[in-house]
Amino acid sequence: MNYRHGFHAGNFADVFKHALLARLIVYLTRKETPFRVIDTHAGEGAYDLAAEEAERTLEWRGGIGRLADLSGADSETLALLAPYLDCVGAFGADGRPALYPGSPMIAARLMRPQDRALFCELRPDAFETLRYRFGRDARVKTIHIDGYTGLGAYVPPKERRGLALIDPPFERTDEFEVMFEAFLAAHAKWPTGVYALWHPSKDAQAEKRFLAAFARAGVKRALRLSFAVASGGKGLRRTGLVVVNPPFVFQEEARRILAFLAPRLAQGPGAGFEIEPLTGE
Ligand code: SAM
């Protein structure tokens, strides 16, 4: 387990994932009844972008740093981004927020008193930070456990409503397969849950097999979102999210958000986004 999210916190892939995650959670708050968020690979919860890791890569500059100045954004897009940007907070003079919120902090900020969250993290040092950050939040349970094991053990949640974010580091070569199997097992036990599965787009064949697996397994409502800051080049340039059981309004909201983010975060030719149903009703 070499992966440390601090090197990548606030980069374009985080902005893409977190802006959409915030919409999914906001949607869950529209009903009074409680919901649960399960974050299988939670990370540290939040990141200091002035810390050595972030300073070393400066990836945040091509991500959240490009949202420091929002002039030119239309009011509808700003309203859709507001829950995410509220979690990010104020930007400093250098274009850096004081603390970049990871998925756990976004969930905790948007949840209400009646909602609950389960954050799984396996790396010991990341888990200690995560536990420290949320130790006093009675709505949150942090567990030092393999995220896939945690997902299998804790679904269906007693609230019956909620969201599972599956956001692994893709260090293992079979991560797509393992992620899909863990999702499928959880989905069999909790078919009404909303699932968001993040992935990098680096290995076209593996990604294609992963995307095809949803239809083959008979998963009924799956939406694929893909986001690129350039085509080709070194490092991560394209990323994706599969959302199973997306809220009714999500596709249109995501289209508006990504149409705004794609030119903002572009690094070269080929920047853009795609949204398409992977499977229908
Ligand atoms: N979801 C976080 C966010 O959006 O802020 C980022 C998660 S990061 C991409 C992946 C995390 O998974 C890392 O913190 C890594 O330590 C952790 N990890 C690696 N293997 C794991 C496993 N088998 N189970 C749970 N966590 C794991």
Task: Report what the structure shows.
With 281 residues, this protein is α/β, with parallel strands linked by helices. The protein has a single domain (5-279), classed as Rossmann fold, CATH 3.40.50. It has nine helices and ten strands. The strands form two sheets. The protein has an eight-stranded mixed β-sheet with strand order 5-4-1-6-7-9-8-10, with helices on both faces. It has a two-stranded antiparallel ribbon with strand order 2-3. Helix 1 (12-28) packs across helix 3 (75-88) and helix 6 packs parallel to helix 7. The protein is globular, with a radius of gyration of 17 Å. The chain binds S-adenosylmethionine. The site of S-adenosylmethionine has 19 residues, from strand 4.
Observed structural traits:
281 residues, alpha/beta, Rossmann fold, binds S-adenosylmethionine
In short:
Helices cover 38% and strands 19% of the residues. The chain is α/β, with parallel strands linked by helices and 281 residues long. The protein has one domain (5-279): 3-Layer(aba) Sandwich (Rossmann fold), CATH 3.40.50.150.
